[in-house]
Design goal:
Layout (H helix, E strand, L loop, with lengths): L1 H30 L4 H25 L7 H10 L42 E6 H6 L12 E3 L2 E4 L4 E5 L5 E5 L7 E8 L2 E9 L6 E9 L5 E6 L10 E3 L2 E5 L4 E6 L5 E6 L10 E3 L2 E5 L12 E6 L5 E6 L15 E3 L2 E5 L4 E6 L5 E6 L15 E3 L2 E5 L4 E6 L5 E6 L10 E3 L2 E6 L6 E6 L5 E5 L6 E4 L2 E5 L12 E6 L9
Antiparallel strand pairs: 1-32, 2-3, 3-4, 4-5, 6-7, 7-8, 8-9, 10-11, 11-12, 12-13, 14-15, 15-16, 16-17, 18-19, 19-20, 20-21, 22-23, 23-24, 24-25, 26-27, 27-28, 28-29, 30-31, 31-32
């Protein structure tokens, strides 16, 4: 029994000694100083964390500020590759001008470079049209561009190479009069608003045509209630919008031409072309020219349903033309539009409230006040009047910044704005010129003797359709001209 007790005491003593030794070893390991190799490894790990954190922080600001030594250390201690940020490429010039006045908001503004001199890259003359046995009229409308092609519609529809002017395809409508009023392009389709005459009454009928952009093949057409004598088509949200001479606006499915909605705008005719901004269509109307029983308005409509968002009533002045023939232009939630009574308006795009107005033309009955679209840019509104003035107004308050007077030549074309220059045509036939102005001060940079025309600008090339009356054309008269700094020829 005594031996057993001694054995148990000895066993407890051994267990106690072993426990104390383990604690001392553990404590010794914790307090043991690091070796030099361990220190270097820990420093490297800490530096990696700091540098990676710094990269994440500076990359968010699109700026890399890491010393070469630290960046080299990253490459040595990790598999992260050296981060290289490519130089910012210059913005590409605009390659398309897919609708009248450039974009769906009808601003007339382009980011493209623009010609500093009237050097001709290529041109189509009366003789060139004769060579292809063209038998239509030559009074051109507004060219548009898409994917390296220029589309024009003097009567037939032509697709030309934008760099060379070579014809790619043409479309001719057989069997009836065919008078294109304007073009738009979208989803590789060309949309044309057309006036025709039916065989029985010889009254104008209106159509919207759709052609394949790549080959000119016919896709579909839709007949409007009356003619489409002035309204130009607009492509937006896979719909085609246009007004007609019955006072209606139409929204068509761009794929098949089916009617989505139609709305009567309580007007005699709709000669204004629609503009698009933030899901809203803006369009002007022409009410009664005799009295105020049917006033003229600027409408804002929902693109999906045609539901009226708001309308703005034009000032009625006895004995004046109180109509909106012009196409509205929109920028920064402000709608700009002129009326034939001589007033130019700036309205809140959200609710139609008046921001400012300025009477810049007399609007006398024999002299239409304002009938063209304005160009917007550089804090200014550029607009011409039928009375022969071209003005730059402040977008903020409508005050005149500068003014150019053409004398007797009317100034009812729509300006093109780019590269701190504004291009504008004034007059017709023998008294017509096409101008390049300094957008800041209105100084003339150059001018060419052309019928007052509106231009189209894409990829540094300015396309101008010569607005000359058909019966005044002479051999070698230029019809379509492409100006570019790369051009080598003179116009005349």
């Amino acid at each position: 029994m005594r031996k057993i007790i001694l054995f148990l005491l000895l066993l407890v003593l051994i267990i106690f000694v072993i426990g104390c030794t383990g604690k001392q070893l553990k404590k010794t390991n914790i307090e043991q100083p690091e070796t030099d190799a361990q220190k270097e490894q820990q420093i490297a790990q800490d530096e990696k964390k700091v540098v990676v954190k710094e990269i994440n922080k500076t990359t968010e600001n699109q700026e890399l500020k890491v010393s070469e030594g630290k960046l080299e250390e990253i490459n040595k201690t990790t598999e992260i590759q050296k981060l290289e940020i490519p130089e910012e490429k210059p913005k590409e010039t605009q390659t398309n001008w897919p609708t009248f006045h450039g974009d769906n908001a009808r601003t007339g503004f382009s980011e493209s470079k623009s010609p500093s001199k009237p050097n001709v890259l290529w041109k189509w003359t009366v003789d060139d049209f004769m060579k292809i046995n063209y038998e239509g009229n030559f009074e051109g409308n507004w060219p548009i561009t898409s994917n390296g092609k220029v589309f024009i519609a003097p009567e037939d529809i032509f697709a030309l190479d934008i760099k060379t002017g070579k014809r790619i395809w043409s479309y001719t409508e057989k069997g009836e009069s065919f008078f294109p009023r304007g073009l738009a392009v979208g989803n590789e389709k060309i949309f044309i608003s057309v006036n025709t005459g039916d065989n029985l009454k010889n009254l104008p009928s209106g159509y919207i045509y759709a052609l394949d952009e790549n080959n000119g093949n016919f896709l579909w057409k839709y007949q409007t209630q009356k003619g489409v004598s002035h309204s130009l088509p607009l492509f937006a949200d896979n719909k085609v919008f246009v007004g007609d001479d019955s006072g209606n606006i139409y929204a068509l499915n761009a794929d098949n031409g089916n009617l989505i909605w139609k709305k009567y705008l309580e007007a005699e005719v709709v000669h204004s072309s629609p503009a698009y901004y933030n899901g809203i269509i803006f369009i002007g109307t022409e009410g009664s020219q005799k009295n105020n029983a049917m006033p003229s308005h600027l409408y804002a409509l929902d693109t999906e349903t045609g539901k009226e968002v708001w309308r703005f009533k034009v000032d009625y002045i006895q004995g004046k033309l109180n109509l909106i023939h012009a196409t509205p232009a929109i920028a920064d939630n402000v709608v700009y539009v002129g009326a034939e009574n001589g007033y130019f308006y700036a309205l809140n795009a959200k609710d139609g409230s008046l921001i400012w107005k300025n009477k810049i033309a007399s609007g006398a009955e024999e002299l239409i006040g304002i009938s063209a679209a304005a160009a917007l840019g550089y804090g200014k509104v550029f607009i011409g009047t039928y009375e022969g003035k071209f003005l730059a107004l402040s977008q903020k308050d409508g005050k005149i910044v500068w003014e150019y007077n053409f004398g007797k030549a009317n100034a009812d074309s729509s300006p093109v704005l780019a590269d701190n220059k504004v291009y504008f045509g004034a007059g017709e036939e023998d008294n017509g010129y096409f101008y390049s102005f300094n957008a800041e001060n209105g100084n003339v940079i150059w001018k060419e003797k052309l019928g007052g025309s509106s231009g189209t600008l894409a990829n540094g090339i300015l396309i101008v359709s010569n607005r000359l009356a058909e019966d005044n054309l002479k051999p070698n008269t230029p019809i379509i001209i492409a100006f570019s700094d790369e051009g080598k020829e003179s116009l005349w």
